[in-house]
Amino acid sequence: MSTRSRIEGAIAQIPDLNREAMELVAAHLDQLTKPPGSLGKLEEIAIRLAGMTGMERPEFPDKRIIIMAADHGIAAEGVSAFPQEVTRQMVVNFLHGGAAINVISRQVGAQVICVDVGVAAELSLPGLVQKKIAFGTKNFLREQAMSEEEAVQAVWAGIEVAHWAADSGANLLATGEMGIGNTTASSALLAALTGLPVKEVIGAGTGVSQGRLRHKEHVIETALRLHQPDPQDPFDVLRKVGGLEIAALAGLIIGAAGRRIPVVVDGFISTVAALIAVRMAPKAKPFLLASHLSQEPGHAVALRHLGLDPIFQMEMRLGEGTGAALLFPVIDTVMHILREMATFASAGVAEKRNNE
C-alpha cells in the first residue's frame, strides 16, 4: 500500500461527532445551578468535547504538546531575524526543559514531545522522536520546497505520531512547532490556499524589521508566481512552498481525529497546518479547538477560513504550543464543572420560572 493510500485510509477513519453525547451534556448543563448558557464558551467547550470523545464526562489525564521541528531552505533569503541553527538549538532546549513551552507544560500538567521531521542537522538525543524526512526543505524562491513524496511522507509521519500518542494513552493533544523561517512558509501557504494578497497574511514573525518584512513579502510573491501552487490541491501547495513540520502537524490533526482525540491548535503556523488538514480531511475540523489569537496578521485570516473562534487574545507570537497549552487548565475546569457542580434538584434550588 502506498503512503498516499495510507493517508486516505486515515482520513476515511475520522468519525462524526457523537450527537447523543452532545445532547446529554447540553441537557445536563441546563440543569446545573446557574442560568442556562451563563458559562458561555465553557459550555460550548464541554458540549464539543463530548461530541469529539463520544463521552458525557470525558477526562484528560494524559495531555501532550507535540512539537514538530524542521528547517526551511527559504531561511537563506534572510526572512528571519534568527539564524537557521536556532532550530537545532531550540530542539535541544526543549529536550532539556528550558523553553517557554516546558515551563508552561509543567504548570498545566502536560508532557512536551519533540519530533524531528526535518531539522538540518544530525540529531540523536534522548527523548527526541525521530521522523526525519529530509534535512530541511529547499529554498522555495529557487525551487520547490520539497518533492511530492517528501510532502506525503511528512503528513504520514504526523499521522503516525498521533496514532503512537493514542496507543500510549494520550487523550488530549496540542500542536507546537519549531523551524526558523516557518512564518514565511506559512504565509506563502495561506496566500496560496486563500488567494489573498501576500501583504494581508504576513507579519513580523520572530521580530523582523519593516525593511525585512517588505523583503519577506517580495520573496513570497516571487515564489508564488514561480510555482503557481494549486489551491485545490493541498499536497501541491505543501510541496511547492510548505514546510515539513507544517505537513506533519496537518497529519497529526488527521490522525488524532481518527482516534477521537481533541486537538488544541496553537498560533499562526499551527493554524495554517490545521487549514491544510481540513482541506485534506473536512471531517477533521470538528475535532479542533482554537486556543488564542496571535499577533501575526495571518492568524486571524487562517482562523476565519477555518471557521474557528479563539478563546484567548494575549498578543502572543512565540509558537511552540505555548498558547495552546494555556487552554488545558480551562478544559480541566470545564470537566470539573460537569462532574462536580450541583443540579437544581440535588441542591434544592428553585429553577427559573418559564414565564419570566
Short description:
The chain is an alpha/beta fold and 356 residues long.
Polypeptide structure, described:
The protein is of the alpha/beta class and 356 residues long. It has two domains: 3-58 and 337-347, Nicotinate-nucleotide-dimethylbenzimidazole phosphoribosyltransferase (CobT), small domain (5,6-Dimethylbenzimidazole Phosphoribosyltransferase, Chain: A, domain 1); 63-328, Rossmann fold (3-Layer(aba) Sandwich), CATH 3.40.50. Helix content is 49%, strand content 9%. A six-stranded parallel β-sheet has the order 3-2-1-4-5-6, sandwiched between helices. Helix 1 (3-12) packs across helix 6, helix 7 (182-194) packs across helix 11 (268-280) and helix 11 (268-280) runs parallel beside helix 12. The longest helix has 20 residues, at 148-167. The relative contact order is 0.17. The mean pLDDT is 96.
- What share of the residues lie within helices? 40-55%
Radius of gyration: 21 Å
First-residue to last-residue Cα separation: 63 Å
Q: Biggest β-sheet: count, sense, barrel?
A: 6 strands, parallel
Residues in β-strands, percent? 5-15%
Counted beta strands:
6
What is the CATH fold-level name of the largest domain? Rossmann fold
Superfamily (CATH H level) name of the largest domain: Nicotinate-nucleotide-dimethylbenzimidazole phosphoribosyltransferase (CobT), large domain
Q: What average pLDDT do the residues reach?
A: 96
Described by the principal axes of the CA atoms, the overall outline is globular
Q: Total helix count?
A: 15
